Amino acid sequence: MSSIAEIKKTNEGKMDQSIAAFKHNLTKIRTGRANPALLDTVHVEYYGSMMPLSQVANVALLDSRTISVQPWEKGMGAKIEKAIRESDLGLNPASMGDLIRVPMPPMSEERRKEMTKLVRHEGESAKIAVRNLRRDANESVKKLVKDKQASEDDQKRAEADIQKVTDRHISEIERLVEAKEQEIMAV
After folding, report:
1. For residue 163, how far is the Cα from the chain centroid?
2. Count of the separate structural domains present in the chain
3. Which InterPro entries match (predicted)?
């Protein structure tokens, strides 16, 4: 049977994982600046199987508005270019010898607003995940009290601690959302 300390520790670990997943999701949301993580979703046909772009080419930044893609094998350039063009990212890659340049088109005001809505939506989902973890932790503590393995005073203290951890994670999510929105709205 787990103790209150174990429940709190597990809960905090799961909340940290939720924030890490949220940060990862944020990297996929496009801002005006180039970000190599943007191409993480692109897959290329390589000897009959679909491979992530990062496994068949070197993806790096050329400058703040251009991603460079350097295929590891000759002859992969055209396939990579086609995969990027056909992805739903709205990008138009250009080959220069072995190097593929992927310029980031400037975003319209309307597109920026759509992106901030998407960021807020992701933020809400992350907050819901954190609140669900809080609920699960509190239910685990209540079960210990019901099974007479902890006192009601222990329960009140544990719930207060769990709430503090929850508040800290929620404010971290809000801070990340705000930072991403500013990044998107910066022209």
Report:
1. 24
2. 2
3. Ribosome_recyc_fac, Ribosome_recyc_fac_dom, RRF_sf
12-19 long-range contacts (CB < 8 A, ≥24 apart) are: 12/165, 14/133, 15/130, 15/133, 15/165, 15/166, 15/169, 16/169, 18/126, 18/129, 18/130, 18/133, 18/169, 19/126, 19/130, 19/169, 19/172, 19/173, 19/176
E strands, 53-132, where? 57-63, 66-71, 94-96, 99-103
Give the end-to-end CA distance of the chain in Å, rounded to a whole number. Answer: 55
* Sign of the torsion formed by the C-alpha atoms of 12, 13, 17 and 19: positive
Q: Look up the CATH number of the domain holding residue 79.
A: 3.30.1360.40
pLDDT tens for the chain, 187 residues long, are: 578 889 999 999 999 999 999 988 888 777 777 778 778 888 888 888 888 888 888 988 888 788 898 998 888 888 888 888 888 777 888 888 888 898 888 778 888 888 888 899 999 999 999 999 999 999 999 999 899 888 889 999 999 999 999 999 999 999 999 999 888 887 6
